[in-house]
Amino acid sequence: MKRRLILKKESFGGLFVDTEIGKREFLRPDEYESKKQELLQLEDRAGKVQIVDVTERGYPLLTDATSSPNSFFWELTKHCIGTCTDCFMDSNSPRWNQAEISFSEIEEIVRQFADLGGYSVRLTGGEPTLRQDFFDIVDLLNEAGMEVGLNTNGMFDEKKLEQILSRGIKDIRISLDGPEEVNDRIRWSGNYRGVITTIERIAEYNKTAPDPTKPTINMVLMRSTMLHMEQMVRLAQGYGFKISFGLMRLSGRAKSDEMLSPEEVVQAAYESQRMREELGLPQGAIRVNYDIFCEGVQDGKRRKVSGYAPFPFDNSKCPLGTSGLNIDAYARIAPCGYFVNAEEMMGEDIRGKDLLNVWHNSSLLKMIRNLTREGCTDCGYYKVKCNGGCPAMAYFLDENINGRDPYCIRDVNVTRIAGGKPAGR
Ligand SMILES: C[S@@+](CC[C@H](N)C(=O)[O-])C[C@H]1O[C@@H](n2cnc3c(N)ncnc32)[C@H](O)[C@@H]1O
After folding, report:
1. Please, which of 15, 139, 141, 236 could form a disulfide with 8 given CB 3.0 to 4.6 Å?
2. What's the 47 CA to ligand 1 centre distance in angstroms?
3. 25-60 burial: b if 16+ Cβ within 10 Å, else e
4. Strand 5-10's sheet: what is its strand order?
5. The pLDDT of residue 296
6. What band does 422 get if pLDDT is binned at 50, 70 and 90?
7. Is the pLDDT of residue 42 over 50?
8. Which residue from 256, 244, 225, 219 is spatially nearest to 396, judged by alpha carbons?
9. What angle (nearest 5°) sits at the alpha carbon of residue 189, between those of residues 185 and 193?
10. Residue 82, ligand 1, Cβ within 6 A
11. Nearest CA to ligand 1 atom 14
12. What's domain 71-411's architecture?
């Protein structure tokens, strides 16, 4: 990956990114100016240093979002060999039988994104690795100096895995929803064995690789999987993988009878914390939604970014629509992937469009940035430790995107939860 030193001017000062070491730094206005001077004096700055000030392009510095997008969550295709019963994307559904975004259209969007200082792209789908031009896309992103992440079902042969690893994709997330019988019932028959083979190959590669990859098992938390958390943590640990438990969102093919109750979600958060403590693992080794109130998961430790973290990075907003964008296989933007089956929450097709203009003027993005999170504003945790939860949950469960996340734990009786010890209560 090409090294980029990106300095973006923002309403709060600036954002500095060094893509080589994954450094992010929020700068106050005076710090922005001195960083700018420092970068302009670098002798070898050509092709490496990028200073982005949207006011020079006639746009204001936004106060409710970053002034240009930092990250993309990109669904490269709707196609997948999987038949997952909970798929929020509803992948492979016949209505997706239309031409997907082409390589040259992707190229043009990436060119604009890079020019605006964008630096992170997570590839997902459908199954992104099924695209014939998948490696051309990864090469394009690497050449543009993007940090590339991959969400995959892990069902590929050794040759394809080698190609993925040789391209230096570090953040590979492979889905596995429990032990074999459970996983294969949710995902599809034979999936578990195939995924374990890939996981074993990655673990083997990492033993000798000079620059090992940092893989994660992604597991959806739902009624069928919840009881298997500990077994899956141990499995992930055995292979040197991290694990991420993502609460099932009621979108696409997901069924409401698999939804956990808010009490169970809190229990999952406390379980995760208990396992971190027992196994001596850092927080990042076991990720889970809604763990913000657990002991030991405190402000500075929770965020990758510590120190000066101004709005919109201060826990007051969901990143999608405010610093990142979801793009679907037809180049339509959405604030977040969970909305791709909700027509009214989908924005414009950005093919042939000016990305900066879309970022500043899309009515959908403006609406997202103006959410007031009704029901959160009087809560002492809001903006301190909690960003109001997931607007998609509020939208799908209560039909009010501006409402309180139905999984808000404020009303959960945590004393009833075994081993649960609420912090600061
Ligand atoms: C839609 S998949 C696409 C990438 C790839 N095909 C895969 O299987 O990982 C991305 C991730 O979303 C998770 N997922 C699927 N449906 C979900 C839902 N309803 N709620 C939350 N996560 C879900 C999957 O388990 C997977 O980890």
Report:
1. 15
2. 36
3. ebbeeeebeebbeebeeeeeeeebbbbbbbeeeebe
4. 23-27, 13-18, 5-10, 49-52
5. 54
6. very low
7. yes
8. 256
9. 110
10. yes
11. 87
12. Alpha-Beta Barrel (3.20)
Q: Which residues contact 260 (CB under 8 A, 6 or more apart)?
A: 221, 222, 223, 226, 247, 248, 268
Does the CB atom of residue 88 touch ligand 1 within 6 A? Answer: yes
What number of helices (H) and strands (E) belong to the chain?
12, 13
Distance CA 192, CA 356 (A): 42
Q: Distance from the CA of 87 to the center of ligand 1, in angstroms?
A: 6
Which two tokens mark 133?
């031009």
pLDDT in tens, 315-357: 667 888 899 999 999 999 998 999 988 999 999 999 999 999 9
Q: What Rg value do the Cα atoms of the chain yield, rounded?
A: 21
The tokens of 175 are what?
A: 């889905």
* Predicted local distance difference test score (pLDDT) of residue 77: 95
Outline which parts of the chain fall under CATH 3.20.20.70: 71-411
The CA 215 to ligand 1 mean position distance, Å, reads: 16
Q: Does the Cβ of 249 fall within 6 Å of ligand 1?
A: yes
Q: How far is the CA of 88 from the centre of ligand 1 (A)?
A: 7
Residue 196: phi, psi to the nearest 5? Answer: -60, -40
Q: What angle do CA 65, 345, 375 make, to 5 degrees?
A: 65
Q: How far apart are CA 257 and CA 399, in angstroms?
A: 18
Please tell me if the CB atom of residue 254 comes closer than 6 angstroms to any atom of ligand 1. yes
Query: Ligand 1 centre from 186 Cα, in Å?
Result: 11
For 2-20, the DSSP string reads ---EEEEEETTEEEEEETT
Q: Looking at residue 294, what DSSP letter applies? A: B
